[in-house]
Structures
1.
Amino acid sequence: MVYAIVRAGGRQEKVSVGDLVTLDRVAGEAGSTIELPVLMLVDGEKVQADPKALASAKVTAEKVEDLRGPKIVIQKYKNKTGYKKRQGFRAELTQVKVTAIDA
């Protein structure tokens, strides 16, 4: 089984060909291709983690759609002062499909 650990939006994701991965928002239209930097590559029994060996490796993904994450509600309250504040947040996300892992 071939898979790779890639850096995506400040996080590390384990991906293999055909996986759908949700990342932080990536610029571009649906259907465009992006390349993700490889941190580790596993090809059956062989594991590569050396940055020099991984300089030529790349993971290609196709942008599927832009979407938004679940709403997170932030509430602040201080007792006896009448202070209360409510705020919401929804992350801007992109869903991509991994199309190729080249060693």
2.
Amino acid sequence: MKIKAIYPGTFDPLTNGHADLVQRAARIFDQVIVAVAANPSKQPLFSLDERVALAQQAFTGISNVSVIGFSGLLAKFAADQSAQVLIRGVRAVADFEYEFQLASMNRQLNPALDSIFMTPSEKNTFISSTLVKEVCRHGGDVSSFVPCHVEQALKAKFKL
């Protein structure tokens, strides 16, 4: 049986922490779908199409990784994709508490979907999309936090 996993997120922007989890998940699962959530309530810096394109560029060389934008309930999207596993990144205890609630809700909505929590590599534990945007917005160097094409896209957004 081939195992299909979904790694969902807003990815606004995609960070090296996200990329690390996708690369590691691609070694574990037969297929990994990076599911880019529309999530307009978060007022993303990048449009859904831009975030999908940035993620696609980041994972071009990994044959079992695909990138798809989506809106609506993640549990339904996972069922539509015939995914069995939901991957969630957990950096700290506070992340775990929130992710545990989400995993429980997703299990109620889609009992066939199991959640797996992955921790980032130690060098990426403090990176968040929110922090990356703030550092870049104020002219700081984000080159060690995001792929180079994402850094360029951030600079263009902030007109740096």
3.
Amino acid sequence: MLLNMHKGKIHRATVTEANLNYVGSITIDKTLIDAAGILPGERVQIVNNNNGARLETYVIEGEADSGMICLNGAAARLVQPGDHVIIIAYCWIEEEHARSFKPKVIFVNGNNKMIEKSDMEMHGDIK
């Protein structure tokens, strides 16, 4: 049996731009997607902590170390610069492998610079 598992996450990134007139997607700093194990073109879920909106789109690689988190196209209507978002990628894994699989969880500061990397999440307050 295949299970759909969380494989990589960028936690509480700050939206730097919302560009309605761009072909849809999310542009993310290359350093962050590399650390989270997310690939350009990969489908991701975006959760907006400010308004509760959830959406899916695909990733465009942004300039490394730029801190860019830009929602493009129609997705730009669901975010504002300054909003905090969680970016989650998923994968399909055989059940026996899913039990030992470790996701890549990236925590960032207000400038979208990585401050911590983990392979698990615990219940509780944000960092």
